[in-house]
Design brief:
Two copies of one chain form a homodimer.
Chain A: E1 8-20, E2 25-32, E3 42-43, E4 46-48, H1 55-64, E5 75-83, E6 90-101, E7 112-116, H2 127-144, H3 148-151, H4 158-169, H5 176-186, E8 189-196, E9 204-209, H6 211-214
Chain B binds a DNA duplex (27 and 27 nucleotides) through α5.
DNA sequence: ACAAAAGTGTTGACCATACACCCATGC
DNA sequence: GCATGGGTGTATGGTCAACACTTTTGT
């Protein structure tokens, strides 16, 4: 019996993205480590799984210490494992992923902050690898699922939507006018009847995402890009 | 310190598919359990991770006890977790996935066998859920990656390829002649110069998959279907 | 009137579908 | 010759990228 068991440390690490819709910036949540190893390095918010917790419990717990959560849905990414050569302890990290609204997310405490993906510090452990994996998943979800509408306000303009896609996928992923017609043709964006007046220029139609109209499409591999 | 640790049982479970190219059948590898719980039920080949093993080691070890492995590449699927309400032990199952050639795979021992997906017995634990997850991944990989060529013989006809897709994705996923031209247009199938003479009818051209010609395409989301 | 931003339309190239049809072989 | 399966071609309709154009606002 003893032979079959192994010394384990089970942890969770979270790759939490947020999009600043106003200034078109993509952020990831990092925490400054206060303990060894990698003291004073930045890393992903993670923790050891405690007695009586599930994996998801642990992931939500550590996040709730760093940011205010509401309606946060975590998705499992991948399980990274690594056995320490000296101690023979097997370290397991089950990583999770989420996308939030930057404007609605309050940070708690001093040691957590949003970092642009364009200027990342050196990260602790293999967190850079986990982050890259999460970023790949983010872009993938944006193309194949309606994740964008979870992070936009209830009413949004097509330009808001387009900017969000640009921020995550990069400029020139698609022509704006073609993006418009493709999205409108799907039929799950309904005209709210109101307009967005923002200074000079023609006011933009405010749309609303209609989950019921989207539902029948959800099993098809429709491309948003 | 004690408070942070949790009673853990770490296991791996494998969803191993094989395709019988000759008779167009898709199989999954199941093992008849000899111990409690779920004694005499069929289940996925899995094991507890031992001292000094990595996750992958354990996955390959249990498979090597059931089938002859050669060039088997396992891909991680998902980590299922479940805490026992009575003992408070946290059970973790890191599942893996692979696709093999039925014709080249020798089973070892009496308690492992191939089962058609169309007539599955009741499975132990949550193995039905894991299997469904793996099946979804299999179909997905077939559409977006050249996994089919790992499982076909070195020389194959376009009809062999088409039959393989039919077996996994179901009939009528695409017209045969359109499937032909789409695949040939990619340019990574090279005419071997030889023909397959199988009884009556015009002999079919034998093709070979060219990894070098495929390489530049690998980062594009090309659709095989 | 003019600039700015939203929104529409047009064009040509490409691609998918559903077939019809031709080709090479065994009997 | 003819059945059988391999392989090619084609007409239609749709989709996509690029870009020109029109509309509605503030100043």
């Amino acid at each position: 019996m003893k032979k079959e068991l192994t010394d384990l440390r089970l942890g969770v690490d979270n790759v939490i993205f947020s999009v600043d819709a106003q200034f078109n910036r993509l952020f990831v949540l990092l925490v400054k480590r206060e303990q060894l190893p990698y003291k004073d390095y930045w890393g992903l918010p993670g923790t050891i799984v405690r007695q009586e917790e599930s994996l998801e419990d642990a992931a939500y717990r550590i996040l709730s210490e760093k940011i205010q959560l509401k309606n946060l849905y975590l998705e499992q990414l991948y399980t990274f494992s690594n056995r320490d050569q000296d101690s023979q302890v097997l370290y397991l990290s089950v990583s999770h992923f989420a996308l939030l609204r930057y404007e609605e997310t309050m940070l708690i405490g001093q040691n957590a902050s949003w970092h642009s993906l364009l200027e990342l510090p050196k990260l602790a452990f293999n967190h850079r690898e986990i982050l890259n994996y999460g970023y790949k998943r983010l872009r993938n979800k944006l193309e194949y699922s309606p994740i964008a509408f979870e992070v936009l306000p209830e009413l949004f303009t097509l330009n808001n939507l387009y900017q969000l896609y640009c921020t995550i996928l990069g400029e020139n992923f698609s022509d704006y006018s073609n993006f418009r017609s493709r999205l409108l043709k799907f039929g799950f964006l309904t005209d709210s009847g109101t307009k967005a007046y923002v200074g000079i220029g023609r006011p933009a139609t405010l749309y609303r995402f209609d989950p019921d109209a989207f539902a029948p499409l959800k099993d098809y591999p429709l491309l948003f890009v």
